[in-house]
Amino acid sequence: MQNFAIKISERKCSRSFAVPGFPFRSRWKDYYSGFFVLYVLVFAMGEIKVTVWNEYLHERKDPRVAKVYPDGIHAVIADYLKSQLGFQVRAATLDEPQHGLTDDVLSATDVLVWWGHMAHDRVSDEVVERIQQKVVLEGMGLIVLHSGHFSKIFRRLMGTTCNLKWREANEKERLWVVSTGHPIAEGIAEYFEIEHAEMYGEPFDIPAPDELVFISWFKGGEVFRSGCCFYRGMGKIFYFRPGHETLPIYYDPNVMRVIGNAVRWAAPVERPKPIPIFGNVKPLENLQ
Question: How far, in Å, are 10, 19, 130, 213 from residue 254 at the CA level?
Fold first, then answer.
């Protein structure tokens, strides 16, 4: 039996889908047909439930930031994800009860996107513990953006200081794809540039990434591991460097595409429950 192959143009969707079991082969290039196929796939696979978390302090305290992100960085990221098929998106912020990350919210979250900068110490240890358990034991994905490298949850999961060099000079950043076949780099050219960026430089005090997707070069000469994948227990973590609060980086289509790709990559895989199993267990075979 031949596969029923569907290819949607790069402008609409860069991925080809092969559906087994159909006795003929056809290629659909029509815009609406392509989106019909995507809707069918989303219905079959289910939507990824995403929570976008942000301190939401800079935007309310600094007019420079408010001018760029009047409704908050979280709103820009959430609006982008809502515009893509396959995501069910909510937002949460620091000043909400339990920082908006209650047991109910996290239980309904497949992937948590995290942006923080000026209030890492205000995030409660109880909430950090809750997130860690969700990542390690239940497979919730975690996307940590920019200055979130100093967040309590990222440092706990890394087990290091997560310190680095930095400079605010609005200099050019060039991000190179170094893992060309990685799903987080899907649709991204050999490199892309951000004309004005805050510099982060090595050494970056993190464990060696399990997968490195991007490295950055800055006009001042520094380089940085700017797209790092980690596996912790059942969960997947992606750190992505771009995103200074006074610069319109979260309106950049390449940056947003990477975030969308990362959410798809980090989504938990289906496993029979309960997983994982710890403690004393009975043997599968007869030991007599």
Answer: 14, 29, 32, 14
The token duo for 217 is: 């070069």
- For the chain, the domains span 4-43, 46-266
pLDDT bracket for residue 45 (50, 70, 90):
low
pLDDT of residue 117 exceeding 60, the answer is yes
pTM: 0.84
The residues near 75 (Cβ < 8 Å, ≥ 6 apart) are: 69, 91
Alpha helix (H) residue ranges in 13-150: 31-45, 58-61, 63-68, 73-82, 103-107, 125-138
Cβ contact 136:232 at 8 Å: yes
Domain 46-266 sits in CATH at 3.40.50.880
Distance between CA 237 and CA 157 in Å, rounded?
Answer: 9
- The C-alpha atoms of residue 199 and residue 243 are separated, in whole angstroms, by 11
